[in-house]
Fold this sequence. Notes:
The protein has helices at about 10-20, 45-50, 90-105, 120-125, 175-180, 200, 225-230, 255-260, 260-270, 280-290, 300-305, 310-325, 330-340, 345-355, and strands spanning about 25-30, 55-65, 110-115, 130, 140, 145-155.
Amino acid sequence: xxxxxxxxxxxxxxxxxxxxxxxxxxxxxxxxxxxxxxxxxxxxxxxxxxxxxxxxxxxxxxxxxxxxxxxxxxxxxxxxxxxxxxxxxxxxxxxxxxxxxxxxxxxxxxxxxxxxxxxxxxxxxxxxxxxxxxxxxxxxxxxxxxxxxxxxxxxxxxxxxxxxxxxxxxxxxxxxxxxxxxxxxxxxxxxxxxxxxxxxxxxxxxxxxxxxxxxxxxxxxxxxxxxxxxxxxxxxxxxxxxxxxxxxxxxxxxxxxxxxxxxxxxxxxxxxxxxxxxxxxxxxxxxxxxxxxxxxxxxxxxxxxxxxxxxxxxxxxxxxxxxxxxxxxxxxxxxxxxxxxxxxxxxxxxxxxxxxx
Length: 357
């Protein structure tokens, strides 16, 4: 269909909604391509820089509450954890949403650009699909916060919403998400202190030593605020998806990851967490080993600390983890590293580990 044959904006939008529903997409909406109002958000705020002729931003959402597949640690084989929040489905469903939405619009003669860089939360809110919660995550009527989104920028004249972005809607007396945050990252004003957010750390931000224990054995994501929100308790587990998703379990072994076993990483890490990168996953595994406390990790951590090609962050985390394990062998490895370490930050981590701090 050429643009000259286009139907009304209302009909075009209704057709897109129906196509999305039939393709297994749970939520869909549209907002204008005007610049976004951002308040300390991640993402691109100028849709027309992605597509100069843009008229609309389409937001497609899908449920991320799926059946968990945890595996318990055993002595000698400590395991990490991917919380049940998108790790095994996001990459595949994002691509599916792009294909469905973009395909529908292109078949009708419109330009449609995949937009992973768009600031997705304000796009979702402005499209009328949800509102911000006190945990600074969008809450939808249908799926609570157990939903993730993909965005498409298009020149199609859709029936677009332009809802206010920052409007308080949570019950005034409810503080469940704030109380559930392990690190006090939620301030109570619908805002997030990213420097204290576990999810933010696990994308590669350096974790302060005094807060590393709060990571526990997590490898990617946190979600404690989401799981505490009463609006999410009624969201049902999604049993199937319209595309194949990752079949790995939620609890890969930590020692192979910390040691840098690339084959193990490729086989056992879901597609979405790989966006953080191999080195970041090694970082997270090393901190998790310090928290799990299995002495079987000492040899692998010592190898990382003593390797000339290990970067400073890997060595710093390894020193901290060895200090947490507090075995005779871990102390020997720390003392050996103290004699040769030249990086001041890593040297400070070694000294703190030896001092039991």
